[in-house]
Amino acid sequence: MYGSTDAAIIFGRGLFGEPKKQATVGLNRQGTKMRGWVERHGTRLIGIKADLTNDVGPAKVGGKNFNIKAVPATKGDGPEDDAILALAEFENDLKLNWTGQGSCTLCAGSLDPLDEIEVKEVLGASYFEGDMDSHARSIARISAADYLPYYYGRLDDWSLLNTEDALKSLWSSAQELAWGRKNDLRQRGELLPLIER
């Protein structure tokens, strides 16, 4: 799940255990036509187009989902403790509720291989606005050892960010700049006596 604000990510991941990641999310509307997208680390991951021609009208709908909540260990070597299976329940009071046809494109980012998900058919598209009342509760525990492989699957692969090489490159550039500045100052120092004569 992608979120564009700290509040959405902290609330969803911290309280409910939702697998949220920060991204840029956009939505444009012109009449019945809508476009939406998700971008992360400069890559557009999701593109959605919809033609929403059916006004369903206000509605009250509810739903439930399950999430697994796990807190990272302070040492960074897996979860701190057992994972929690959480049940989240939602009650939505929809003020706007439009449906229609749509299309979806999934692309790959270095940390988000969404292109591996095959979209065989889009059954429809919907857009709604309203108020949501949500709450969650813990219903079971999963041992940290049993959950460990799935825990790492929820995290970004930091080795793909290659921060060490980026820092080495930055350090090398800084050294070259400093060396060039030092040589420049030394040359100016050698020329100064000649200019003063």
Layout: helices, strands, pairs:
Elements lengths: L1 E2 L2 H11 L4 E2 L1 E7 L2 E8 L2 E13 L3 E11 L13 E24 L1 E2 L2 E2 L11 E18 L1 H10 L9 H34 L1
Parallel strand pairs: 1-2
Antiparallel strand pairs: 3-4, 4-5, 5-7, 6-7, 7-10, 8-9
Characterise the protein shown here.
With 197 residues, this protein is of the alpha+beta class. The protein folds into 2 domains: 2-160, Acetoacetate decarboxylase-like, CATH 2.40.400.10; 162-197. The protein has helices at residues 6-16, 144-153, 163-196; strands spanning 2-3, 21-22, 24-30, 33-40, 43-55, 59-69, 83-106, 108-109, 112-113, 125-142. The strands form 3 sheets. Strands 3, 4, 5, 6, 7 and 10 form a 6-stranded antiparallel sheet that branches. A two-stranded parallel sheet has the order 1-2. Strand 1, helix 1 (6-16) and strand 2 form a beta-alpha-beta unit. It is globular. The N and C termini lie far apart (72 Å). The model has no long low-confidence stretch (mean pLDDT 86).
Global geometry: globular
**Strand residues, percent:** over 45%
- Helix and strand string, N-terminal first? EHEEEEEEEEEHH
Low-pLDDT parts are none
CATH topology grouping of the largest domain: Acetoacetate decarboxylase-like
User: Any idea of the CATH class of the largest domain?
Assistant: Mainly Beta
In oligomeric terms, what are we looking at?
single chain
Total number of distinct structural domains: 2
Give the full name of the CATH homologous superfamily of the largest domain: Acetoacetate decarboxylase-like
Number of H- or I-type helical stretches: 3
Largest sheet: number of strands, sense, barrel closure: 6 strands, antiparallel
Structural category is alpha+beta
Cα separation of the termini:
72 Å
User: What CATH architecture of the largest domain would you give?
Assistant: Beta Barrel
Share in helix: 25-40%
Number of strands: 10
